[in-house]
Amino acid sequence: MFKKFMFLITIVLVGSLFIYSNTSFAKEANDEGTDLSLEDYNQLVDEGLIPDDITYEEWAEANDEALFDELEAPDVLLDTGDSDLSGIDTFAAKKTFTLKKGDILVSNGTSSKGLTGHAGIAISNRQILHIAGSGKKPQVVSVNTWQKNYGIIKGQRDGKTNTKVYRVNNSSAGKAGTWASNNYKGKNYKYGFTGSKTSKNPTYCSKIVWQAYNAQGKGKSFTGIIGPYQLPNKITGAKALGIM
């Protein structure tokens, strides 16, 4: 009788620990602003932001925050000569780099509706093209504005935000930057995930970058949607350059 009683107690304790563990995980994910629940996915489908031919698994994979931590980024800091960057201590960078047309920017600094993280493409050494999220249109911003919203200037405030920069070291990079500018700059396109991989309206941040390189024959195939953190592995020749 005593053995049966102890067995039941053990089952209850294990069950309680399991429930607590899952509750803690859900709370942690919620605290970090991440919601990858099936309910959230279904809501996005109902709102028409995500087509129903993109599965929940594909959507969740594209939004895996762990992918950002797995992306390589050397201790090299973007040199802007900007006074706002004086006293930067988030990264112990010993070297610097300058931005070039076609550079690929991947940030953990924001989450748009339906997508975790953010991406943009440099169209010059001082300008970046992107689409900020739901309700926004494609736009061009300065390097300083990007860093304040998605880069290390914001990281000085929240202790975690930064942008990892990738470069394709051939003529495809400049051509990709030009393609992005010609096809998206000033366009009245909506934000969304419907349409084909090559359609431009609606569009989303990482799709723009992938399309720019795919037009140069450098885009690798993907299924469903392509998240910002997946970009470096879906563009042929993209190498980690530094942080900004």
UniProtKB/TrEMBL annotation:
Protein keywords: Signal
InterPro entries in UniProt: Papain-like_cys_pep_sf, Peptidase_C92
Pfam families, per database record: Peptidase_C92 (PF05708)
Signal peptide: 1-26
Protein name: NlpC/P60 domain-containing protein
Upper classification of the organism: Bacteria, Bacillati, Bacillota, Bacilli, Bacillales
